[in-house]
Structures are given as C-alpha cells and as structure tokens.
Request: fold
Amino acid sequence: QQQVKQSPQSLIVQKGGIPIINCAYENTAFDYFPWYQQFPGKGPALLIAIRPDVSEKKEGRFTISFNKSAKQFSLHIMDSQPGDSATYFCAALYSGGGADGLTFGKGTHLIIQP
Amino acid sequence: DAGVTQSPTHLIKTRGQQVTLRCSPKSGHDTVSWYQQALGQGPQFIFQYYEEEERQRGNFPDRFSGHQFPNYSSELNVNALLLGDSALYLCASSSDTEAFFGQGTRLTVV
Reply:
C-alpha cells in the first residue's frame, strides 16, 4: 500500500519556469512533510519541510503549499535553473514514533532546459 | 562538520554471502535510520536505532539486522544475500524530525 503518492513521474520545464510537484498522503497521523533533492549517485538532501499547522512555507526559491483537508502538499521551484535538474522526493512522517520512519513518494525526475 | 558518512561507497557480493555497511552520523545526532533505495524508487525504511536499541522497524525480513554503538555510529548487516537486495543503502541521522542522509552504499549482489 503506497501511503504517499507523488506526481508527475517526470517533468521538463524551461529555465525560469515554475515546476510544480504534487504529493497526496493517506495517513492522517502524519505531521511532518519534507522534500528531498537527489542527484545521481548521491544521497537525498533535505530541501524544505512543513508541518500541517501552516499552509505555506518558503525557503529561498522553494515553496511548499499544504492543504490539510485534501491531504495534499506540493513543491514549487521559482526561477528554475538547469542546476535544479534532479530527482525530487516528497516524504511524510509521524513524529510521535511507532510509525515506519519517513514514508517516501516514488520521486519526480525534473529536467530544467536552458 | 563532516555530515553523515557511509562506508564503503560501493560493494559487490555473491548470493548467500553476508555484508556489513557502516554509518557515522552528523555531529550532535543520536538517532540513525537505514533505508533501502532500489533503482528508480524512493527510499524504503528498514529500521531506526536510538540509544543503541532498535526503536522502529519497517517491513524487512530478519536477514536485515543492525547495531548502534555508544558513539552513535551504526552498522547494517544483511545475511544470506539475494539478488533482490541489490540497491543503494542509505543512512540518515537526526536529533529531532529533520533527517540528513549520507551518500549511500551501492550494493550489487551477483
């Protein structure tokens, strides 16, 4: 059972555009939602994270939008650059423990064309 | 700060063998989690160690075991290797909810 569904699987955007990656979760106990960026041959790097008590969080060019009632959250990358080309993963966690660590989506392969 | 370091970076083993992977957490972090990432997939949670004990476990067989040492470093052991165990094995350390990953160990089982 996939608890975090991520879309699209792949995305191509022109430089300067705003790629949007969406995730939906099922377990209402989740209370921490991070996004990770992964380059080939490297481990995932934490980009930005949000808790369900806020609807939006911005850090630099990265923004998370969160819709608690719909159980959905999304990542927006402003002024995208070719260096942003990577695989992006959303994840979810029940920080109270007893759950299975971070639950990841299947990833979105993002290409930013020059 | 060296961040999370894992060793070795690459490893080739034969079916049926046993393997040990190592992880040193980020300075100040006391919790270590291990994940398996198959090609083209998101990481899957294996287990988490805190205060030298396994605190949480994902849906992995008992062939997967681990250990945490007093200095918070950790080992992942996999016995009776199967071809399907070929993957990138990631270690993540944390002191709260934020988890930071190492570069991973690429295990190939032949």
Q: What stands out?
A: DSSP finds no helices and eleven strands in chain A. Chain A touches chain B at residues 6, 32, 34, 36, 41-46, 49, 89, 91, 93, 95, 97-107 (CB under 8 Å). Residues 13-113 of chain A form a domain with the Immunoglobulin-like fold (CATH 2.60.40.10).
